[in-house]
From TrEMBL, chain A:
Keyword Secreted belongs to the record: no
Annotated keywords: Amino-acid transport, ATP-binding, Cell membrane, Membrane, Nucleotide-binding, Transport
Name this protein carries in UniProt: Amino acid ABC transporter ATP-binding protein
Similarity section: Belongs to the ABC transporter superfamily.
Species name: Frischella japonica
TrEMBL record, chain B:
Keyword Membrane part of the UniProt annotation: yes
InterPro entries on file: AA_ABC_transptr_permease_3TM (IPR010065), ArtM/GltK/GlnP/TcyL/YhdX-like (IPR043429), MetI-like (IPR000515), MetI-like_sf (IPR035906)
Family matches, as CDD domains: TM_PBP2 (cd06261)
PANTHER family: GLUTAMATE_ASPARTATE IMPORT PERMEASE PROTEIN GLTK, MEMBRANE COMPONENT OF AMINO ACID ABC TRANSPORTER
Protein name per the record: ABC transporter permease subunit
Subcellular location, principal: membrane
Membrane is among the record's keywords: yes
Native organism: Frischella japonica
Cross-referenced NCBIfam families: HEQRo_perm_3TM
Membrane-protein topology: Multi-pass membrane protein
Gene3D superfamilies with a match to the protein in the record: MetI-like
Top-level taxon in the UniProt lineage: Bacteria
Keywords: Amino-acid transport, Cell membrane, Membrane, Transmembrane, Transmembrane helix, Transport
Family in the record: Belongs to the binding-protein-dependent transport system permease family. HisMQ subfamily.
Length: 241, 230
């Protein structure tokens, strides 16, 4: 579903991604972890072209993201993304947040978009808030809305960029629960997170990054029981108390 | 004590000429309103040019803003008074005796203010976080849709107080249209009534003009402060 081939990226002279290669199969849940500044957020943003790369190739299905002839906007409409800081549109109601792209990008009718939006709000347990503004909701609720907004577009894959890092601890689980449910339904997911509980529960594979490099890319079982590198061992020791 | 006498004369003077004063005020309001509306629209276009990746548009917008911000408004008005009427008459094929001074004044103010508005709007656009662009792009929106539906509405909401404040400054600046021998609120009170009446009438009317501008601008800025609080 997603293929990254030897991608490298520089900010000026600083190399943030070094020759990263990996893939995510259809229906797979892949967790990307690593210390902060290791390039994991940058890596996931290259997948839908939000961060351009200078070297390497990226495919979603058969479509090459890194090719100039690709209609990036159209491709992105089928790749859901959830951000660390939610990024709901603060000037629009929850319902409008969910229907806007359906109408403007997918060309759905107002009624069709609204029906879809309401059914997804129901699913994340927030139907009662449809007419509120994002600022009136808690962080956890906003992130659930953001997930629903991405799902409205019927994505073939979902990308999560540290979806729980900006949340108060008591709100982390309500968001993780939605994600776990999504994973069980067979959604293809790439998730940057420090939530190792989530990884243990639903991940098929774990990618461990450090200093812009993918240094482990193994099954969840192997990663947690027998990490191959000292850096991964060190990371796991710190993060699991 | 003379000051009190001047003030005491104000009511009689305005009562006798209220029609002229209202016409002056109406012209001031008309020019301000057009300049604000056209200035904001053209200013937005300039701001987008300035932020675009197309180099030519970039250079044009930068040059435009720097030019208008480096020339005194009075000079711009004079220039437009001398040159623009001919151009307008030629463009719209009006007879030579047609009076296009008001249109010239409106255009001059709008073009001048657009330079200031574009800087305010550019700052407003830049203040919207990068994450909002990412969110819109990730949903498949094009750059144009992102700007129109997501970024500009947020930028404008944050900028309303600044845009209105700029409008208040503009309201005062319109008094400069006297160089085009147009009769606005200032021209009506000071030149048309004060000077024409002779004697101490000019002192009374200068005081009256000052009070009028103060009352209008002060109330408007109270309104802006009130809007800021929400």
């Amino acid at each position: 579903m997603i293929t990254l081939k030897n991608i490298s990226k520089w900010y000026g002279r600083f190399q943030v991604l070094k020759d990263c290669t990996t893939q995510v199969e259809k229906g797979e849940v892949v967790v990307v972890c690593g210390p902060s500044g290791s390039g994991k957020s940058t890596l996931i943003k290259t997948v839908n072209g939000l961060e351009p790369v200078q070297k390497g190739k990226i495919f979603i299905g058969d479509t090459e993201i890194t090719s100039n002839s690709t209609n990036l906007a159209r491709l992105r409409s089928r790749v859901g993304m959830v951000f660390q800081h939610f990024e709901l549109f603060p000037h629009l109601t929850i319902l409008k947040n969910l229907t806007l792209a359906q109408i403007k990008v997918l060309g759905r009718s107002d009624d069709e978009a609204k029906e879809k939006a309401l059914s997804l709000l129901e699913r994340v347990g927030l139907s009662a808030h449809a007419n509120k503004l994002p600022g009136q909701l808690s962080g956890g609720q906003q992130q659930r809305v953001a997930i629903a907004r991405a799902l409205c577009m019927d994505p073939v894959v979902m990308l999560f960029d540290e979806p729980t890092s900006a949340l108060d601890p008591e709100m982390v689980n309500e968001v993780l629960d939605v994600m776990v449910e999504l994973a069980y339904e067979g959604m293809t997911m790439m998730v940057v997170t420090h939530e190792m509980g989530f990884a243990r529960k639903v991940a098929n594979r774990v990618i461990f990054m450090d200093k812009g490099e993918i240094i482990e890319d193994t099954s969840k079982e192997q990663f947690f029981s027998d990490p191959q590198t000292d850096r991964a061992k060190d990371f796991l020791a710190k993060i699991i108390h | 004590m003379q000051l009190l006498e001047w003030i005491a004369n104000i009511p009689t003077l305005i009562n006798h000429h209220n029609e002229l004063l209202l016409m002056g005020l109406w012209l001031t309001v008309k020019i301000t309103f057009t300049a604000v509306v056209v200035g904001i629209i053209w200013g937005t276009v300039l701001a987008l040019m300035r932020l675009s990746n197309i180099k030519l548009l970039n250079i044009f917008a930068r040059g435009y803003v720097n030019l208008f911000r480096s020339i005194p408004l009075l000079l711009v008005l004079l220039w437009f008074y001398l040159a623009l009427p001919q151009a307008i008459k030629y463009l719209f094929q009006l007879p030579p005796y047609a009076d296009v001074r008001i249109a010239s004044a409106m255009i001059a103010f709008a073009l001048f203010e657009a330079a200031y508005y574009s800087e305010i709007i550019r700052a407003g656009i830049n203040a919207v976080s990068k994450g909002q662009y990412h969110a819109a792009f990730a949903l498949g929106m094009t750059k144009g849709q992102t700007m129109r539906l997501i970024i500009l509405p947020q930028a404008f909401r944050a900028m309303i107080p600044l845009l209105l404040t700029q409008g208040i400054i503009l309201f005062q600046d319109t008094s400069l249209v006297y160089v085009m021998s147009l009769i606005d609120l200032f021209g009506a009170s000071v030149t048309q009534i004060g000077m024409a009446q002779g004697g101490t009438a000019k002192y009374s009317m200068i005081i009256f003009a000052a009070i009028s501008y103060f009352v209008i601008c002060f109330s408007a800025s109270r309104l802006v402060n009130y809007l800021k609080k929400d």
